[in-house]
Amino acid sequence: MAEPTIPIIEIRNVTKTFQLQGQTIHALKDASLSIRKGEFVTLIGASGCGKSTLLRIIAGFEKPSEGEALMWGKPISEPEPQRGMVFQDYALFPWLSVRDNIAFGPTSRGVPKVQARDTVERFVDMVGLGRFADAYPHQLSGGMRQRVAIARVLANDAEVVLMDEPFGALDAMTRERLQEELLDIWARTNLTVVFVTHAIEEAIFLADRVVVMTPGPGRIESDNPMLLARPRDIASPEFNDIRRALSGKLHSHHGKKAA
Amino acid sequence: MALADTPQQRLADMPAPSSWLARLTPLGLALIVPGLLLIFWHVATARRWTRLIPTPYETAEYMVDFVFGGIYNDAFSATAHIHLLASMSRVYGGFGLAMLAALPLGLLIGRIPLARLTLDPFFQLMRPIPVTAWLPLSMILFGLGARSAFALVFLGAFFPILLNTIFGVKNVDPKLFEAASMLGCKGNAQFFRVVLPAALPSIFTGLRLGLGLAWFVIVVGEMTGVPQGLGAVIMDGRTLSRTELVICGMIIIGVAGFISDRIVVAIGNRLLRWSPNHHG
Fold first, then answer.
1. N or C: which end of chain B has fewer CB within 10 A?
2. Do residue A104 and residue B193 have CB atoms under 8 angstroms apart?
3. Domains detected in chain A
4. Please, where are the H alpha helices in B112-226?
5. pTM for the full model?
6. Facing B175 at nearest CB: one of A84, A91, A104
7. How close A236 comes to chain B (CA, Å)?
8. pLDDT surpassing 60 at residue B146
């Protein structure tokens, strides 16, 4: 079988600057990253490290000041359905039912109604919301809303799912459950996931690769392959070793910051 | 599958069909204040604290005559529906026209920066002028009579609809535009699929305020040179010193305004079922 030689997502020497009170701020400086199809990559770092900026550049919401962002070798110029975004605060359409939120993408792209309906039902079931398909977002808990948001991008044939601290606002129990469900969906499909978080445990639990980023200016500090067998036990000594190592890398910038 | 959280509880918070007793209690509570007012009115007039105001009974009797006739058989007997229809046609006509003008203008100003820069300052300047202050000018421009009343109703309803539409369109959560564009809904398509539904609660608030103001303004508009209309009835009652006529006119305006507001609220509740903070 011929493996695709080009990465699905490639970031080449991307710098992102913006102006704040006459000063130039480097949200991201000379970042390079390449992601292969089917990989689960987490971006982790303290606030201000540019992890959300990097995600938004991949999504197409923002353009790099320097360098380029590519999908399948072509420059990313605007948001597109093949790169679906899951926001921390859900960003569901409050006037649409669960079912209609999930149908929003397919109907926007002109998918025939009958075909769209089958797709929607499949993803409603995949995220376990069959009984609540006619409920409105405000009637759902945070965990259920995030399930809708995930189903919404999957139903729209996203190849890459970009997740910006998607479980950050959820309680620990719901968060763990959704992490497992997400891994389950990822394992069953051919998805590529780029997942931003500030929780080390979450990053290690989920990822094939953990990309550590450091602030001031935002940089990629290191790219760490996670070789632990799945399902991963967060209480195991191996897990703990990785956590300690990553924690050290996360805090390594403190010494350099004065420079 | 089992769910990690309890959405059943949230769904249980939805208004469930209640028993007749549960439905009757709010009605009873709502009637306390009008009831007390009626008793006070009765006591005050029966004890002759004032001789200028008729008793509730006299007023009720006159109301029957005003609506059905057959008691006094004067110039006003059995004419309530004529006046009510005249006022309603001006209220709904003026309101409808205001809606036709204010909705597109509001969408335009809220959505297009050039339109906002051009028109918004002008409307902000006009807004603080009370509608009643327009009366003399309106009479000069539209003549003494029904057209002037119509114009006042239009002005009264126009601003609340316009301002709330602008507010609704301008305050759409920017995240929703991002969500729509990454799902493949871009440019002008976002207007119908995102902007309009997101602004609907605000637009409805504007319509409700506008209709309320239309009923408010109609009396002023009909006070001079209009033969028919509830405002004219009230003015006639004043000139003829027939206070019962004035009170009957007031009651009919109150009830008509109340009913039309409830209709708007009912439509709003139906269209805005999805909105957690919109249950009028």
1. N
2. yes
3. 7-82+186-259 (3.40.50.300), 83-158 (no CATH)
4. 113-126, 135-142, 146-170, 174-182, 189-190, 196-221
5. 0.85
6. A91
7. 25
8. yes
